[in-house]
Amino acid sequence: MEGLILLLVIFGGGSGVISLIIRNLYYICQPNEVLIFAGAQQRLGQKTIGYRLVKGGSSIRKPLVEKALRMDLTNMIIELKVTNAYSKGGIPLQVDGVANIKVAGEEPAIHNAIERLLGKSRKEIEKIAKETLEGNLRGVLASLTPEQVNEDKIAFAKSLLDEAEEDLEKLGLVLDTLQIQNISDNVRYLDSIGRKQQAQLQRDARIAEAKAQAASAIQTAENEKITSVRRIERDTGIAEAEAERRIQDALTKRGAVVAEVEAEIASELVRIQSEIPVQQERIKQVTEQLKADVIAPAEANCKRALAEAKGDAAQIVEDGKAQAEGTKQLAESWRAAGANARDIFLLQKLEMLLKTLSATVPDVDIQNVTMIDSQTGGTAKQAIAIIEQLKQTTGLDIASAVNNLASSSQRLPEGK
């Protein structure tokens, strides 16, 4: 029993010792830190250093030889503010920015951080980094004009990163990001540039807007043209289809109309052909009736007229013969009468003429015959006018003929 108790005491004492050793000598390194065991020397290339590094793991400190130190690798946010930093051209500027910085966790920059920053607090490290960045910022501003700084903040930040990278690396720091928040000046130089740029931007915006409106108007007109062309093509297609339909309807109707007309013509032809015998019989009937009513009477009238004409012609012939004989005898008497034949003929005719003229004069009893002047009126005037008209028209001078007859009657007894 006593042996067992002794064994337990020995075992308990050993466990306590082991626990004490683990708690004091065993170190675990977090992912965002670096363990530095200072004291033991080791070769690093051609350089001898008096510490060893543990990053992301665990290690046991050598008792009495090494001292364990921790270095924080988490991010540090540094607010930068530089005033009266003269830019190229002598314009003082004020720059506000934010930088994200951390202690370098990779070799060889981590050795610089261990040598320069080990044992310093975060505030001290932030102050060192801020002063370094502000110095670099002033150096970069001195090489740039206010226009360059204001117009391209990204290029300005990149220039600042390039400028500060070497200095920060020497300190064992790494600049992750740098953002320039504000750039201003006390003489309002950037405001004038801003107004100028704003005016240019407004001008460019108006130009761009005008170009956009023009392009939109052109595109709208182009779209309307395309729409109109498509509408016209659609209407043309509809019109062509309608015209084609109408043509087909017309052709169909034409065929129907032609067939209908042909049927009507065929029907009319059949009707006419059927009426031809009737009309022929009617023609025969009309012909016979014409012969009875017109031709036969006309032939009879013609024959009667021919007979009458022959009779009249015979009478005319006989009268002509008699007249010719009388004329012949008259001509022989005219030749026998000699030069007075014409006057005797006229006096014979004058008797009938005077009878006709005297018939127009009312019956009067004449006791005396008085010759009056042709200028006086009355019946005598009419008789004188008639004698004168006979003389002008026929050349018969009644007064001369009467005188010639009177003288001839007076010469006849003397001649006997």
UniProtKB/TrEMBL annotation:
It is found in: Membrane. Pfam families: Band_7. Keywords: Coiled coil, Membrane. Residues 24-197 form the Band domain. GO terms for cellular component: plasma membrane. GO terms for biological process: protein localization to plasma membrane. Its main location: membrane. Transmembrane segments: none annotated. One of its GO terms (molecular function) is protease binding. Residues 154-181 form a coiled coil. SUPFAM superfamilies: Band 7/SPFH domain. Belongs to the band 7/mec-2 family. Flotillin subfamily. PANTHER family: FLOTILLIN-1-RELATED, FLOTILLIN-RELATED. This is Flotillin family protein. It comes from Adonisia turfae CCMR0082.
